[in-house]
Design brief:
Layout lengths: L26 E11 L2 E14 L4 E10 L7 E8 L5 E7 L3 E8 L2 E8 L4 E8 L5 E2 L3 H7 L8 E7 L7 E15 L2 E10 L6 E8 L5 E8 L2 E8 L1
Parallel strand pairs: 9-10
Antiparallel strand pairs: 1-2, 1-15, 2-3, 3-4, 4-5, 5-6, 6-7, 7-8, 10-11, 11-12, 12-13, 13-14, 14-15
Length: 231
Amino acid sequence: MSSAQFFAQKTLTPSNTKLESKFIKDEISNAIWYAQQGDQKMEIGKITNEVKKVDKTTLLIKTTVKMNQAPDKPWVDSTLVKISNFQPIYHSSYNMMRDMTLKFKKNKATGYYLDKKTQKKDQIDEKISTEYFDSNSYPGVIRFLPLKEHYSTEMPIFDYNPAAKKGVVKAYIEDVNKGELNGKKVWIVKTTDDIQDRKTIVTYYIDVETREVLKQEIDANGRKMVMESVK
């Protein structure tokens, strides 16, 4: 299904999200990040994802990426959301190119964005008139949805980009299918979003039994990257 033909079954927001909460638990998972060309795969980094219940209502999602070219300068993204519906509370992002922090309220996002190359620091104070998820945590929402075949939806997400300053844009689950990966039954979930003008397709392979993301494929304008879970 092309993006141009896509029609969401409904719009998903924190207030109407029903998550399968039995799958949400403390966990640490690791993946290897590959660049792929044809049958050739080249490892470019390692990813550690941590999910932790900070208290009865708050969930921490922390992603640490170590690129092989600069293993001592990891990218670290931390997001706090409400466990019940993934309503965003806080997001920080630190890497070689920029530092960013965001605090979320119902109708506002505040914080700062520091471009490390130019040393330009933007103060963020964005008014928001709709419900939304954080762009860093919405892939977590996908894992815990009551998935079924041919399910589709669109999700408002907040994304700060000083070049575009788009604010709330949309992410899309375009299709869901059942399949198998390494002998395990999986949900194959095809997604895209407005951050890259729907030119990037991310496909998740999610274990039906545990909701672990076993594999992620990213297709971006002819470039393909793969993240594969490792024990």
